[in-house]
Amino acid sequence: MHLATPMRLCTLATLACMTLRMAAAASVAIVDTTVVDVEHDRDATHRTVLVEGDRITSVAAANDARIPAGAMRVDGRGRWLIPGLVDMHVHLFNTVSHRPPNDWALPLFVANGVTGVREMSADAQSIELLRQWRRETDAGERIAPRVLAAGIAARISDATDARREVAAIADGGADFVKVFSEVGTPEWHALLAAARERGLPVAGHVPAAVALLDAAAQGQRTAEHLMQAYEACSSIEGTLLRERTGLAGQALADLRDAQESRALDAFDPRACSRVARQLAASGQWHVPTLALPWAEAHRAASADADPRWHLLRADERARWSRILGELAAHPDPLAGRRWQGARSIMTVFRRAGVPMMTGTDAPMPEVYPGFSLQDELARFVDAGYTPREALRAATLAPARFLGQDATSGSIAPGKRADLVLLAADPTRDVRNTRRIDTVVLGGRVLRRAELDALLR
Description:
Layout: H1 5-9, H2 14-23, E1 28-37, E2 42-52, E3 55-61, E4 72-75, E5 80-83, E6 85-90, H3 106-111, E7 114-122, H4 124-138, E8 146-153, H5 162-171, E9 176-179, H6 185-198, E10 202-204, H7 212-218, E11 222-224, H8 229-232, H9 237-243, H10 249-265, H11 269-282, E12 285-287, H12 291-297, H13 314-329, H14 335-352, H15 371-382, H16 387-393, H17 396-401, E13 419-422, E14 436-441, E15 444-447, H18 448-454
């Protein structure tokens, strides 16, 4: 029997979909809560937050708030309200393996309070699908975070191809050009020049033959995974880069991997501090994806023993099993050192004020969508960030980077109603972001029962 689109989309969690449609029709009042101010590092207690449609209309003292008749009331007493969380490095599409899109991950993000994501490797066809998902989400027919930006990867082997490649990326509807580590230096410069001509930012891996500070100076807007930070924070960066001169593609990647132990051994706090100060002044933002090296350093004995294993689609379980099986047979001897190196770099970068945003690389093996953003917050704190600083990296910082802070990233009238109500104070212990009572997704309310339904 043919099903209408809304019902077909709700088969995963019918109760939650019904709630989305019902809640969107009424005003919402989150009554007498503590609003966590991620912008000014303070809390506002006993506040009532009013929502009309998908916007916050009022944040007032609970005693003074005027709640419209018929508004849905959400009890905020003894609870803390934060902006929706953002994962700035996810992969919703399988453009290399050509498996179906990772739409199975969308409700997992929302169930963990992640209301926005940045897609890091799309193509023109998948960007059109993103538009469809957005329409369905806005109509209350799909439970999904907003895709705040999407990039298309540039894959070229000759600098003369840069203009044609960037033109195709721009015509495909991308918000930015994604680059990988294996891009050669001449090709990278050509991509930057072509992207500037088309008004597109370049983001992603700092190519393995390019110094981190050079990438910042030349205008690469983000650096992901701390790529080239290990080298920059060592006493032998110049030597390592000279050895990579003229290489590209797999040969460049292989040499970088072969040099990694030397880079880790040569960590130099003074060099790292010098680099960090210049990065902080450069305007380049960093998405360290700490959940990934942490997962690599803390591999579970059996992934399928994790209670979240059943949340993965069958083909994703197969992919994880294959990769994890290979790693079990050939363990990475540098995994633990890589994680400790990442912590050391982050500690230095924090002191210098290098702009940071949270991202996770989900769904890499053992990086569960949504859950991994909660892990990322904890890893920031492991590296010396305060819980408030970690929260800012997951809320206001992405909004500022994307130029969307006038309408999102904090809790204020006029801003989008992407909110997470917590049962415990996240500024005392960032792990309390896991204690979710309610998620407000564009003004639509998902209570704990509906969130649990998404995880079944």
